[in-house]
Specification:
Layout lengths: L1 E7 L5 H14 L7 E6 L7 H10 L4 E6 L6 H17 L4 E4 L7 H12 L10 E7 L6 H17 L4 E5 L7 H10 L4 E6 L6 H10 L5 E4 L7 H12 L3
Parallel strand pairs: 1-2, 1-3, 3-4, 5-6, 5-7, 7-8
Helix pairs in contact: 1-8, 4-5, 4-8
Length: about 240
């Protein structure tokens, strides 16, 4: 029997975990699998091992593990696979399949464009810069993915002034890129967090922009948009 395990990062903030559960509830009706469970990598329950056990108890014979992660990174490349390797040893008769992160996709670009347009953006001159801000990772592939996504966003907004950057570990860094666009003469700067939640990272984005000699407009994060649910379904149907 087919089963799906949706893996979220997990948060100490219970409302964030509830938001993830509500999001996956939107996805489930579109997936042809009798068993569908949620598990978290850390900070929340059920854990990955608890969620796999629940799938097995319900009769799963094959399991698609779907990491609900925006870009590739250590969690998707190492942390989750390490947990799944342990589960393979525990359940040798269970066939595991590992999906891929959401990555760059036109659906994600449409959500980001909507977030910018919520702030009444229009491409009426070249003095508006848009900073697409990712979390950052030691996995270099994330830089390529965000760059590809920024190109898709350019097409959506009909603007050539979209600049990808990261809060940590990857380059270019957000603070450096913010200074670059200010020095280049942009008068209005839109920050676009490529993140699922508001929280410490969105707060950091705002703090680092304080005192900038430009008008800085902060957009909402990507978030759990209905089009993001479409993207999860799209990725999964490519695996089944």
């Amino acid at each position: 029997m087919k089963a799906v395990l949706y893996i979220g990062h997990g948060s100490r903030n219970s409302s964030s975990n509830e938001e993830f559960h509500a999001f996956i509830k939107e996805v489930k009706p579109h997936i042809n699998a009798a068993i569908q469970e949620v598990g978290f990598l850390e900070n929340a329950s059920p854990s990955i091992s608890e969620a796999v056990a629940a799938c097995v108890e319900k009769g799963a014979s094959e399991l698609l593990v779907m990491p609900v992660l925006l870009l590739t990174g250590i969690h998707g490349k190492e942390d989750i696979p390490e947990e799944i390797a342990k589960m393979k040893e525990r359940y040798p008769n269970l066939l595991f399949q590992y999906g891929r992160e959401l990555g760059s996709d036109p659906l994600a670009a449409k959500i980001l464009a909507e977030r910018v347009q919520e702030k009444h953006f229009s491409e009426d001159n070249s003095k508006k810069a848009l900073l697409l801000i990712g979390h950052g990772s030691r996995v270099k592939e994330s830089e390529k993915q965000l760059s590809e996504l920024s190109n898709l966003l350019k097409a959506e907004l009909n603007s050539q002034h979209v600049f990808p950057c990261f809060l940590k570990e990857s380059s270019p860094g957000y603070q450096v890129e913010l200074q670059n666009v200010v020095e280049s003469g942009y008068e209005t700067i839109y920050t676009i967090p490529h993140l699922l939640f508001t929280g410490i990272f969105t707060k950091r984005i705002k703090e680092l922009a304080e005192g900038a000699s430009a008008d800085v407009i902060h957009c909402e994060p990507l978030g759990f948009h209905s089009k993001l649910a479409e993207l999860v379904v799209k990725r999964m149907k490519g695996e089944f």
